[in-house]
Every structure is written in C-alpha cells, then in structure tokens.
Specification:
Blueprint: H1 18-30, H2 32-43, H3 55-68, E1 72-77, E2 91-98, E3 101-111, E4 130-131, E5 134-136, H4 140-160, E6 165-173, H5 184-189, E7 198-201, E8 209-214, E9 216-225, H6 240-261, E10 277-285, E11 305-314, H7 320-337, E12 343-351, E13 354-355, H8 361-374, E14 379-383, H9 389-394, E15 401-403, E16 418-420, H10 421-439
Parallel strand pairs: 3-6, 3-7, 7-15, 8-14
Antiparallel strand pairs: 1-2, 2-6, 4-5, 5-16, 8-13, 9-11, 9-12, 10-11
Helix pairs in contact: 1-4, 1-10, 2-4, 4-10, 6-7, 8-10
The structure holds zinc ion (ZN).
Zinc ion binds near residues 111 and 203.
Amino acid sequence: MLLPKAAFSNVYPMKTDATHANRLANRIDDKRDDLIQLTQELIRIPTLNPPGENYLEICEYLARRLEKHGFETNFIRATGTPGDSERYPRWNLLARRDGPRKGDCVHFNSHTDVVEVGQGWTTDPFGGALIDGKIYGRGSCDMKGGLAASIIAAEAFLEDVPDFAGSIEISATTDEETGGFGGVAYLAEQGHYAHVDHVIIPEPLQKDRICLGHRGVWWGEIETHGEIAHGSMPFLGDCAVRHMGAVLSEMEKTLYPKLAQKRTAMPVVPEGARQSTMNINSFHGGQAEPEADYTGLPSACVPDSARMIIDRRYLMEESRDEVVTEIEDVLNHLSETRPNFTYSLEELWSVSPTMTEKDAPVVTTVAKAIKDVLGKDPEYVVSPGTYDQKHIDRIGKLKNCIAYGPGLLELAHKPDEYVGVDDMIQSAKVMGLCLIDLLAVE
Ligand SMILES: [Zn+2]
C-alpha cells in the first residue's frame, strides 16, 4: 500500500532505520507492474549495436519518464566517436535530480545498446514477453532489466525522501558492447564524472554479488612475413603461414603453460578465468577469401603474409609491459632460431585491470543493503571481461565504482535471454536502500 507522504514526513529522516527500509521495500513491491512495463518497453526499442540503432529514441523515452519524476535531462551526442554518423548518431542521456540540500552524488550508469540477435530464439527478441515471472528479449538481462530496476529504485526513493541531501544521476549510454568510446568514455572525457561520488553499474552480475572490477585486456596483431612465388615451386618463395605455424607451436610449447601458472588473487568468476588467458581471435594467411559470387579456384601462390589477432586477458598481478614482453620473447626466440623469420607486432587496444577496494564506500553500502534485503553477505567477484568501469576509473579518475544488478551473466548475448522479475525487484530494493544510506539526511 502506498502511504501518503504527509503521513510520515515527520518521521524521516532516519537513515537506514528498519521501518524506513521496510516502507521503501513496500513501495518497490507496489511498483512491480510499472517495473515490468518499463522493462518491456525498453526491450521493444531495438538498440542493436553494431550499428547503433535507435539510440535517440531510447534516450527520448527515458527522458520523458525521468522528467516526470523531477529529473533534468541532458542529451549528449558523442560526435566523431567510432561509429557515430548522421545515420547512426551516438546519443547518450544524462539525467540528474538534485535534492534540496548538499550531499553526495550517486550515479547509476547503464548501457542502452544490445548485441545482435543470433539464432535459436523461441520468443520474439524484441517482444518483451512475460512468461512465468521472466521477461524475455535481447538486452533483457544485459542490461535493460538493470536500467529499469535502478529507475524504479530512484523513483521510490524520491517519493519516500524528497528532502534528501545530494543528487541522483541516471545515465543511459551507448556502445558498451563495442568498447564504450561513444558512451561512458565520452562522458568521462567531457568531465561528467568529476562531481560524482559513487557509481553503480547495474550489469547482470546477480542480485547477491558485488562486482569489484575486471581483468585487463591486451589485443595485438602479429604478422609474419614471407615471399610470394609460384605454388609449384615453393622453395623459390618463403611461406608466411608456415612461419605463423611456428609461432603457434612456440606459443603452445612455452607461452600457454606459462599463462596457466599465473593465478590471481582477484575473485574472478567463473573460476576458469582466475588466471591469465589468451584467445586467438583470428588467423589469416595467404590470399583473401574469394568474393561470394566467385566460383573459380584460387591461384597458386606462396603466401607472403600471415596475420593473427590475439586477445590476452591479464591480471592485477601483471603489467601491460610484461604481457607484451612475453609475446615478444616468443617472436624473438623464433627470429634467432628459425631461418628467414621476420615479424611485426602491433598493439590494437589495451585496458588495465581495475578493482575497487572492498572497503570503498559504495561497496560497503551495497554489501549492507544486500544483507538487509536478502539476509546474506554478498559474494565479491571480478568480471573476466571488461565493461564501462574501465572508463570511469581511467578517464573519470573515480575508483568508487562497482557493477551490481539483476540477471545472470551466463544469459547475456544468448538466445532466449531473460531477466527475472523477482530478481529485479530485489535488486531495486538493494539500490533503493543504498540511496537511503548515502543520501537520506540525519
Ligand atoms: Zn552489458
């Protein structure tokens, strides 16, 4: 039941007093239908990335809603960032509501983009069907469900504690799935995190987990060089693919066993990612793949170039330089031992590992709220892959940031992706309690 505000205007502020927390929890329960509808409507705006469809539309939808709840909205186009064009403009929304008194700024950041649909769906990927307490659709768990839960949490808090100290921000940003350059990175470059104190990113890490950060990333391209000749007389040329084969076998012999030995103190989930890993993202040697309408044979040539893109994920315990040196060691060893072996190595992109301390204010606040709502201590985890926290840390210079939100990471990017309504409700309660803890005045 919804109590009229006047009925308790003289009993708050009480910070996380039990009755206050209960009232907020009840209010969020009352918003269940609203939460479902909000999630469904977000899913029904197909914000596919690439190429970056309907970014303006989803910002306009969110702005209409948040303005009704007293938020000031700011549309920010990341002009000139990767993928930005007149056809696919990179629109972000930054909504802010200030309380009547000074205090901290709590910022919820969600990405609005979703990945391609893929095969194997039994429901409409942009239908938002509600079946047995789950809402289905591309982006339901990653991460429109988390965005909706944070909005409901903020709205419930504002109804309950209009006289709060500080400000609440909700950002809806683009391109997380393709690096976040036109989204959080752009906002951070424009200085939008300078005044922010606490950041919660409602990525689907599960309602009882706090994600402190992520491993580092180093992507590089190795090229081996050869010499073109007629394929019937390969001894007159030099085969770049055979050289790359030697790179692969040297990696298997020395590098992969070394990486498997490197364990981390970071609580990465799943367990298999609690070490250094390296994926060979692609491998290409010799002639280009023929055009689809070409039905002839390739010509007989010795390949003079082979390229391999590697995706190395690294740990707090390692440095970027160490990662690069290990790769160079493999290549230099071959330069010394294999006739005519030459190579080039190019860094494609690099992200440092990041991990917020467990005693950071946002972590302890969320931990306490999880305990209150779910009756258990949170599990502290680190993500195997990166997300927008990297930009908030590196460009925004703000360490007090975590990922916390509803949904199962394992469902992200899969067919029949869904988010559970009860999970969203409970996460919203956790986020709402955090707002009480951080912004309700004594
Ligand atoms: Zn995501």
